[in-house]
């Protein structure tokens, strides 16, 4: 397996906190969502070119977040990821939110992306060129 892709870096701010004094679960989604956009570019498949070059784009079909350890204001985070599964019309990404200083895992995110034809408004087969790129980063044991 190749190294995991570094997708996003960020900082936890006091306004991310809830009444318990740690980052509220609703704030994890935007960090992971932004990381998923970066995933495509890091794979060499810029989302901005997917439709024009391949006639499809992807839509999120399922996202599962696992919360592991609390984050506090001032914590620096890094999100990394890999391709965890490749189907005929979909692929899955596995991402981790890590503490930038300690490397501790604070959350994981498993995302199913389905290839979508905007003309028919239906799922579409994955183009072979995209499959080949995804295969380079496949880490199924993740």
TrEMBL record:
<dbReference type="InterPro" id="IPR029069">
    <property type="entry name" value="HotDog_dom_sf"/>
</dbReference>
<dbReference type="Pfam" id="PF13279">
    <property type="entry name" value="4HBT_2"/>
</dbReference>
<dbReference type="InterPro" id="IPR050563">
    <property type="entry name" value="4-hydroxybenzoyl-CoA_TE"/>
</dbReference>
<protein>
    <submittedName>
        <fullName>Thioesterase family protein</fullName>
    </submittedName>
</protein>
